[in-house]
Design a protein that fits this description.
Layout lengths: L2 H15 L9 E3 L8 E3 L1 H9 L3 H12 L5 E7 L3 E6 L1 H13 L13 E5 L12 H19 L2 E5 L7 H13 L22 H17 L1 H16 L2 H25 L13 H13 L3 E4 L2 E4 L13 E4 L7 H16 L3 E7 L3 H13 L7 E7 L2 E2 L16 H18 L8 H22 L6 E2 L2 H4 L7 H21 L12 H10 L2 H11 L3 H20 L8 H25 L8
Parallel strand pairs: 5-6, 5-10, 10-11, 12-13
Antiparallel strand pairs: 1-2, 2-4, 3-4, 7-8, 8-9
This protein binds one RNA strand of 76 nucleotides through helix 2, helix 7, strand 9, helix 12 and strand 13.
Length: 587
RNA sequence: GCGGUUGUAGCUCAGUGGAUAGAGCACCAGCCUCCGGAGCUGGGUGUCGCAGGUUCGACUCCUGCCAGCCGCGCCA
């Protein structure tokens, strides 16, 4: 158990002994390091509830806690803060205990849950771009985090593979190659095994088809018709669709592989096509469908709404279905497959209204079982102009190119700093790749997921400031110390006093890991882990500068500092691992 | 128009109703006989958008207003 949880329990016991709610016993590290290591603010809240003087309650709690052997100082301050200072041996012993625990004091969930994470995946034929970075990186961090905490996670890329874009591509290809057998309605196969288009062809065709459909009503109509026929199962279109899928998935696998992101399911909208008709029948049977302006909709207005809430369109007036329909069918499918406690949708915040409609419809029609549906919304990645850095006709920044640029920039930085010298080219390239990816991922994760941020590769790849490379640098420095320690035959001992300020501060930051993990998990917010990692790096750098390790002559102090460095390294590896950031051995 | 969201240091942003609102960047000054100086140590700025309210206590909760961004039935 973490020390914060331990202390919280202790203080909660004291509140309980006084006949007060245990919840008031929550302990955190002190906001006034000059006064204490830890603090509890519960006495003031308890005073409000019990209608008593806060200082008096605090005094009573302190009286109970005072006997504890680990405590050096327990006192009341200000309006009713309870300040706690541990004795130095206790502080050191706690650090040592954490070092020996493979989870570094991070509790496993007491009630593990089954969680589906939907990455709101890329659309087939559209090349992955910067916009896909966030769902990939944030979603991946969440799946690692949830697994670490003990939940059972099923991640689904959930490709956009079944809507109007498919119809547009079919029409576009027919325009170019009317001779292909897929377009002969009389024919039902067999069709060639060789794909008629490559993924690059698709990426080139899509924007043209989209532009055409946008400006020309009859083209749009043709695309709609083709989409409907595809969904109804026209063999030639299905065969063509399969080719599109195969080609696109090859490219996606390359991109996600480069990012180090993996999925349990490679499903998409098409996967529930056969479930649409039964779903509609059951909705009809439940009386949930209404006819509105020629479309069948589900009303999702709820009592107490203070805003307009448009209905969810389930069947369009032309008979086609929408992504709202496939989202509902997908919920049913997931409940049937794994009966999750939660389904998390890691999707752009601009789709908030859509998810609110879908979630309401799912609840109203009792489709979601026990699952709590959550939109894990994220902000946009903007260019220097503050506008989304998105796929538009013209300047498309493909994800693959982006990673290449990050690697290139990382290379430049390594040269600037004369780092990663005297290693084989292969190893050098590997270091640059890891530094570039760390820069990209950390920059993305360090921003609160709901805020937008400006994409600035030059800034992200810096080794100074709050960046991925800075964290890697701190980690690599510790690894370097251990290599040298091994050469000289030095080994880590137990963390023990006397402790300098820098050591004490480093230990206190180390204690925060469990809270950071818990909060990041509870709030689904990776940036809390980034904040922690950065605080740790700063505390370590300070320790590193003030406390010589290998040059220390006292063997006990040297062994203790080595142990503390080892603990810190383990923390970096744990947290960076959850963030999905790989660390090189040297750089 | 309705709804959502944001407004905190020169810039980019943190900030679980609690103590003296914090980081990074930028700027200035120190620190290399010492484990990797892309580091560390100091230096200082804030009408927390504005006005009310709740509270022992508000950047945090509530109401109104102002400004920006986003969304609002048959695209996904």
């Amino acid at each position: 158990m973490s020390i914060i949880a331990d202390l919280s329990q202790l203080v909660s016991d004291a509140f309980q002994e006084l006949g007060l709610d245990r919840g008031f016993g929550a302990v955190a590290t002190s906001r006034r390091p000059d006064l204490a290591h830890f603090q509890c603010n519960g006495a003031m809240a308890a005073a409000k509830q019990a209608r008593r003087a806060p200082r008096q309650i605090a005094e009573e709690v302190v009286a109970i806690l005072r006997a504890h052997p680990e405590f050096d100082v327990v006192e009341v301050a200000g309006p009713g803060f309870i300040n706690i200072k541990l004795t130095e041996p206790a502080l050191a012993a706690r650090a040592d205990e954490m070092r020996l625990d493979e989870r570094l004091g991070c509790e496993r969930s007491a009630a593990p849950e089954r969680v589906v994470i939907d990455f709101g995946g890329p659309n087939v034929a559209k090349a992955m771009h910067v916009g896909h970075l966030r769902s990939s990186v944030v979603g991946d961090c969440l799946q690692r985090l949830f697994r670490f905490v003990g939940d059972e996670v099923v991640s689904d890329i959930h490709m956009g593979d079944w809507g109007l874009p498919m119809g547009m591509l079919i029409v576009e290809l027919e325009r170019r190659r009317p001779d292909l057998p897929y377009f002969d309605a009389e024919l039902s196969g067999p069709y060639p095994e060789e794909p008629p288009v490559s993924v690059d062809d698709l990426a080139e065709m899509y924007p043209k088809a989209a532009a055409l459909a946008k400006e020309d009503e009859t083209e749009r109509e043709k695309a709609r018709l083709a989409t409907a026929q595809l969904q109804e199962g026209r063999p030639g279109y299905r065969a063509l669709w399969q080719h599109f899928m195969n080609e696109s998935m090859k490219a996606m696998k390359a991109d996600f592989g480069a990012l180090g992101v993996h999925f349990d399911w490679w499903l998409g909208e098409a996967a529930v096509n056969d479930a649409i008709a039964p779903l509609l029948a059951s909705l009809e049977a439940k009386g949930a469908l209404e006819l509105s302006q020629g479309a069948q909709v589900i009303t999702v207005v709820e009592e107490g709404d203070n805003k307009e809430m448009p209905p969810l369109i389930v069947v369009k007036s032309d008979g086609g279905v929408t992504y709202g329909t496939t989202d509902l069918a997908t919920i049913v499918d997931r409940v049937a497959r794994v009966d999750p406690h939660h389904i998390l949708y890691v999707v752009d915040k601009r789709q908030h209204l859509h998810f609110e409609q879908v979630f309401r419809a799912a609840r109203r029609c009792e489709l979601s079982g026990r699952a709590q549906l959550e939109h894990i919304a994220f902000g946009t990645v903007n260019g220097a102009d503050g506008k989304p850095f998105k796929t538009r006709e013209g300047g498309v920044m493909k994800l693959g190119d982006l990673i290449a640029r990050a690697t290139e920039q990382a290379n430049l930085r390594l040269e600037e700093g004369a780092l990663a010298k005297d290693v084989d080219q292969e190893i050098h390239d590997e270091i640059a790749r890891k530094v570039g990816l760390a820069a990209l991922k950390f920059a993305d994760l360090a921003n609160d997921r709901e805020s937008d941020y400006v994409f600035n590769l030059e800034k992200f790849t810096r080794f100074e400031g709050k960046t991925g490379p800075y964290l890697l640098y701190a980690t690599v420095r510790i690894k370097s110390i251990f290599r040298k320690a091994a050469e000289r035959g030095f080994e880590a001992g137990t963390v023990s006093g006397p402790l300098s300020d820098a050591e004490r501060k480093l230990i206190l930051v180390n204690f925060l890991i469990s809270s950071a993990v818990q909060r990041a998990h509870a709030e689904r917010r990776p940036h809390l882990l980034c904040d922690f990692a950065y605080d740790l790096a700063q505390a370590f750098s300070r320790f590193y500068n003030n406390c010589p390790i290998l040059a220390e002559e006292d063997p006990a102090i040297r062994a203790s500092r080595l142990a503390l460095a080892g603990l810190t390294l383990a923390q970096f590896e744990l947290v960076l691992g959850i963030l999905g950031i790989e660390t090189p051995e040297r750089m």
